[in-house]
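Dear H.,

Thanks for agreeing to be a second pair of eyes. The structure we're designing against is below in token form, covering all 233 positions.
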């Protein structure tokens, strides 16, 4: 720990590159003493761009994208092809509009442990239309009775403030390896489209990491997600 040369009430602690564990710091200054304990853990990020999904399907619902009256929907989810919504072409998906439509991503997770799932998304719709179920391999994490609830961001990402963050806690990976992560549209059934655009998904540890704008940039660097220059200013 190195004191600040310009302010004796401040100091910077820098852990060794390979250090993990509990750190206890004691401070004595002009007769006052204080003690703080915190834990140092490595930050792990594993994930995929939205457009890097490996499979999709209509599910078991009679009403789904395969029999949509909108011909655009019949193709299912697909990559965005233009640099118009903040991320380079081939980053996010759209046309995830119909109940029963599931999308699968494969994510390599080389370390077992507890993670949070960070999803970068955009939608102009409101719950319950935006409800999504989550399954990892054979385990249902969030079902139709306890779905991921995406709040409206105002639209589908045409402006920077239309990209939101969803953080899903309690993701336990028992064994290292490649997982199948499947999300299913379980929103309101009917003829109304209710899409959610996904830019990327990331499993992150430690589980209590603060997911702010600075951390999103770290996730995007790790996943090789490129932003469109000038869009975010």
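And this is the sequence the design step returned. I haven't edited it by hand at all.
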């Amino acid at each position: 720990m190195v004191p600040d040369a310009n302010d004796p009430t401040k100091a910077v602690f820098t852990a060794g590159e390979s250090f993990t564990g509990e750190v206890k710091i004691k401070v004595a200054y002009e007769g006052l003493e204080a003690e703080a304990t915190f834990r140092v853990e490595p930050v792990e990020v594993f994930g995929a761009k939205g457009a890097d999904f490996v499979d999709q399907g209509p599910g078991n619902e009679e009403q789904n994208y395969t029999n949509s009256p909108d011909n655009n929907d019949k193709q299912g989810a697909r990559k965005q092809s233009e640099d118009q919504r903040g991320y380079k072409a081939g980053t996010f998906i759209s046309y995830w509009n119909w109940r029963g439509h599931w999308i699968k991503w494969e994510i390599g997770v080389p370390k077992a442990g507890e993670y949070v799932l960070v999803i970068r998304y955009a939608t102009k719709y409101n719950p319950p239309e935006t409800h999504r179920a989550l399954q990892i391999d054979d385990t249902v994490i969030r079902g139709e009775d306890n779905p991921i609830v995406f709040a409206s961001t105002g639209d589908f990402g045409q402006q920077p403030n239309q990209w939101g963050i969803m953080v899903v806690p309690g993701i336990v990976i028992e064994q290292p390896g490649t997982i199948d992560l499947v999300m299913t549209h379980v929103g309101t059934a009917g003829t109304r489209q209710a899409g959610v655009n996904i830019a990327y998904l990331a499993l992150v540890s430690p589980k209590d990491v603060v997911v702010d704008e600075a951390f999103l940039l770290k996730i995007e660097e790790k996943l090789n997600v490129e932003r469109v220059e000038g869009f975010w200013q």
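Two observations from my side: The chain has two domains: 2-40, 44-222. The first strand starts at residue 2 and ends at 4.

Warmly,
E.
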